[in-house]
Each structure stands twice: as C-alpha cells, then as structure tokens.
Recover the amino acids of this structure.
C-alpha cells in the first residue's frame, strides 16, 4: 500500500502545483483591475491598455498582485483551496436538506443516475440475450444500438424531455431515460461478448445433455458472462451519471448537479461550477469503485477472479 | 456378456468442405459395437477418430452412410440422453463446486433434489472423490478434475460412455492410475465405452476391441478383438500377449501410413 501511495501522492501534488501555477496568469488581469481601483500602481495603467498584453508578461511586471489571484470572488480559474473550501462549506457545513447543500443536489442527480442505470442495464441485458439467440436481432438491433451512440446526447436530451413531458412523464423519469440511453450500450456490447464467451466444448457438453436454450442461458451463458458484465457496468454507471447531469441542463432544472453547473455559469460563479464538477467526479469515482468492490466479491465467490 | 449391438455404422462418410477443397474426415467406415464392449479408437491426428465419436454423439452430421445408436439415429439417442460424453478437457464450471458440476446434467434433466444428491454421492464414490464434493475445481489437480468430469458423464446413468482423449493432457503416472480406475469402473458398471486415444499402451490395456484408423481419408484399417483377460493388473503390459497385440496395432498404424 505504501508503495502505491508515494507515486499517487506525487501525481496529485504535481497536478495541484500545475493548477496553482495556472491560476496566476488566468486571473492576473481581473486582479490587476481590482488592485488599480484600490489605488495600486499597475504597469501599464488602464484595463484597456492591458487587454491585449500577454498574461505571463503582466505577472512579471506586477508580481505584487500574485497573491490576489488566489482569492478572488469570481476568478476565471479558482484556486484549489477555494474549490476545496466551497466543497466543505456546501457539504459538511450545510444541512443536507438545504437547497444550497451539494449533498442534496448530488442526491437528486444520483437518484436519476441509479434509476437510469437500472433501466439501461436491464435493457442492455435483454437486448444482448435477444441478439445472442436470434440471428435477425443480431443483424437488426446491433447497428441501431451503435447508431444511437453516435448522436450527441446534448442534441437528443431536450427532445426526450419535451416528448416525455407531452405524454405526461415528468420529474425523475426523463432524466433516468437519458441516463439509460447512455448506459445500455456498454452493457449490450459487453453482454453479447460475455454470453458468447463459452467455448465450443462447453456448448457441445450441454448439447449432449439435450439442454434447452433457456437452460443453457441460465446455467452456462449468464454465469460465464459476469466478468464481461461487470466491466461494462463500470463504464455504464459513469455514463449514467453523465446522462443524468446532461438531462438536468436543458430543463432549466433548479435541483441537481447539472442545475448547479447551469446556475454557476449564468452568474459567473466559477467556484460553484468547479465544486459541482468535483462533486460529480467524486460521485462517479465512488460509483465505479462500488461496482468494482461488488465485482471482486462476486467473481471471487464464483472462483472466476 | 450380451451380444446386443449398441452402435452400428455402415459405410459412414463425413466430408468437410474447406477453402482448400473437401476433407474426407471419414470414408466408408463400418463398425459394430456390442453392448458392454470397451472400444478404443486409435490413430494419428486427422484419422477421424474424434469425428467418428462426435458422429455417434450427434455433434457432427455424417454426409453419407448410416449409423444407429441403441437402434435409433444419433440425434434420437442424444435426445433420449443415451450417452455420457467426456471431453479432452474437464471443462468444469469454476463457479460450481465439484458436487454442483456433477449435478449440472441432473438439473437439466429434471431429477428431483433428493435423487440428485443420491446420484452425486454415488458417482463421486465411483471415481473416488467422495471427500471433494464441496471443493471447487481450482482446488483439485488436473487428474482429479478429469475424474470429476467422468463422474459428471456417469451421473445420469447412460448406458454408453463416449470419451474423447480424456487423459490426453495428463502426465504418464496420473494416466496409468486413471486407466486402472477406469477399467475398474467399467467392470462395475458394464457400460459400453467408446474411447479415443493416440496411445498404443493405453488402447491395448483398456480395450476389448481396438479400432485402428488412418488419415486421408479417415478410415478403419484394422479391428482387433483383444485376447487379454478381463482382470488386468498394470503389469499385464509386460506380458507377451500384451506386447503381441501392441505390435499388431503398431503394424496397423504403419500400414495406414504406408498407403499414403
């Protein structure tokens, strides 16, 4: 564990350092404007004069303003500690029922994610079973499944919401459908491969028992496909989260991580955007890790790891 | 021993169409196997011995001639679950215990839970794996796994046991031991056994009838009725009679080779 810890920490520290270094030139112009208004000597004087100058050059000539770039209210690029403190304030220090709590918003998105993931996984498995057992489905469904993923989700998400809304479906379900739309695909692809993974000998053996197709599916194909399914689920659950967030954007939703991203960009609240992004990343990482744990336990119990 | 004919092939042919033209895996093969016989099929690779066994099991379809198993077509025999088949690899499901693997055909065939448990216990005794019912395949050696797969083929009590080089991947010492066990098992159960091998000593030691085959086209060159007694300790392989039969098998193999 300690052997792994050192390289991981090194990478994290390097990323943080690069981030801090980037913050200075990104925010220097607005920092200088603020400083100039407060009466400081800025070279050259006047925001207009500075507009077309290189940010790095400005940092060199006005190094007194470097500290200010790390603590602006609406920085172009917030510093890591600003995002961290915003995350802390909106998770630990707020009640989770509050509309300003990121935990509350994360839960809204997470519930759509999980529902969408369940629908997508179920659909994916059903389609894969159909594709493996029917030549017609193999030839007809697979191309559509692939085509479905070439459509930008941002383009189709508003339409799904409008169409579902017109037939009276609102709230969690439309978001879950968009989520399912993204997550069924890796499951179909993985499961088709998994269901076809038993070799000739295994299938011949079942044939000698005069086993029916449903029996072969249940006793051989499904258990044999589990390692493939889990690999797909890891991709699928992350895709589900993206789907749920994207599903929150076109509706002008007021709740959910997507709504936080949207509100943040309306009001130039970059710190809020970044903390919502980090929350989404944390949720995604936790979900993938959770699937990973279930995968390890299941496959170990089945003697397949 | 009853003289009822269990497997009967007449002018059996099987041609595979490949990119390089037709391959005659079997050509005009005729053979009768009587009930309770232990028949070995021996020959170099490509002689059609495995194909012949697979035709009996309805895993391949002949392109010419006739074959009956228990008096009916291989397909009907398969649907009546007339035979157990042992493949070269044990092919146990890693997610099932040894007992669970042996239960697999019983579950598919719809035996009651009590009967399943009873049969699993019996066949595990037969292959001397009684203590391993709860173990998983990876906890067993290769030889033990193959014994478990034989138990699986025996579990539903088919009269015919078809074995496709079941010990081919195992080392000599394990193989000797398994051969001895297989003979004992055959004597206790009086099943009709079809056994594919490419080892001459194995074929001679086990069989009551040795079918020598040769390739291109796959055909039978000699059928030897073994004169060895039913009681066969391992050291019978040093007897003159054994060596004489092995000699005849070798000549049969060579004759097939020279004909090319």
């Amino acid at each position: 564990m300690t052997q792994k810890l050192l390289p991981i920490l090194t990478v994290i520290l390097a990323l943080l350092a690069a981030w801090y270094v980037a913050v200075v030139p990104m925010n220097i112009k607005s920092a200088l404007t603020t400083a100039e208004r407060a009466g400081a000597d800025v070279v050259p004087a006047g925001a207009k004069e500075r507009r077309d100058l290189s940010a790095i050059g400005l940092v060199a000539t006005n190094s007194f303003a470097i500290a200010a770039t790390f603590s602006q209210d609406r920085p172009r690029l917030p510093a890591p500690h600003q995002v961290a403190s915003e995350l802390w304030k909106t998770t630990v220090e707020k009640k989770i029922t509050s509309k300003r709590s990121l935990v509350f918003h994360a839960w809204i998105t997470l519930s759509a994610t999980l529902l969408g993931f369940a629908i997508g996984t179920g659909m994916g498995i059903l389609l894969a079973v159909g594709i493996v057992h029917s030549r017609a489905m193999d030839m007809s469904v697979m191309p559509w499944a692939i085509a479905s993923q070439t459509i930008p989700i941002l383009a189709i998400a508003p339409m799904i919401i409008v169409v579902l809304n017109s037939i009276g479906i609102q709230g969690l379900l439309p978001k879950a459908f968009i989520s399912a739309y993204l997550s069924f695909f890796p499951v179909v692809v993985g499961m088709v491969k998994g269901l076809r993974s038993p070799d000739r000998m295994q299938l011949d053996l079942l044939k000698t028992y005069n086993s029916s197709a449903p029996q072969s599916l249940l006793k051989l194909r499904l258990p044999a496909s589990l390692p493939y399914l889990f690999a797909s689920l890891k991709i699928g659950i992350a895709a589900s989260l993206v789907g749920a967030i994207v599903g929150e954007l076109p509706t002008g939703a007021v709740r959910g991580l997507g709504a936080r991203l949207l509100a943040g960009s309306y009001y130039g609240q970059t710190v809020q955007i970044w903390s919502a992004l980090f929350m989404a990343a944390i949720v995604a990482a936790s979900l993938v890790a959770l699937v990973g744990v279930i995968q390890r336990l299941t496959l170990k119990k089945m003697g397949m790891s | 021993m009853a003289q009822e004919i269990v497997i009967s092939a007449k002018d059996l042919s099987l041609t595979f169409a490949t990119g390089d033209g037709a391959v005659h895996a079997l050509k005009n093969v005729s053979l009768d196997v009587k009930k309770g016989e232990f028949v070995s099929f021996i020959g170099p690779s490509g002689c059609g011995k495995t194909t012949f066994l697979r035709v009996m099991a309805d895993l391949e379809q002949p392109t010419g001639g006739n074959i009956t198993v228990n008096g009916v077509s291989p397909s009907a025999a398969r649907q009546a679950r007339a035979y157990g088949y042992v493949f070269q690899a044990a092919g146990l499901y890693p997610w099932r215990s040894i007992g669970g693997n042996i239960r697999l055909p019983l579950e598919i065939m719809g035996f009651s839970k009590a009967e399943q448990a009873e049969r699993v216990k019996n066949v595990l005794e037969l292959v001397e794996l009684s203590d391993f019912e709860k173990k998983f395949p990876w906890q067993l050696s290769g030889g033990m796994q193959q014994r478990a797969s034989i138990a699986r083929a025996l579990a539903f009590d088919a009269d015919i046991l078809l074995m496709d080089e079941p010990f081919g991947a195992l080392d000599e010492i394990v193989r000797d031991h398994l051969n001895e066990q297989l003979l004992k098992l055959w004597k206790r159960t009086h099943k009709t056994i079809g056994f594919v091998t490419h080892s001459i000593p194995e074929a001679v030691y086990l069989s009551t009838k040795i079918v020598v085959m040769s390739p291109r086209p796959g055909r039978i060159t000699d059928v030897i009725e073994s004169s060895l007694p039913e009681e066969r300790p391992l050291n019978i392989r040093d007897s003159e009679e054994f060596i004489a039969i092995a000699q005849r098998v070798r000549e049969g193999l060579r004759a097939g080779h020279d004909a090319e």
Notes: Residues 102-301 of chain A form a domain with the MetI-like fold fold (CATH 1.10.3720.10). The interface with chain B takes residues 201-202, 204-211, 215, 219-220, 223, 302-304 of chain A (CB under 8 Å).
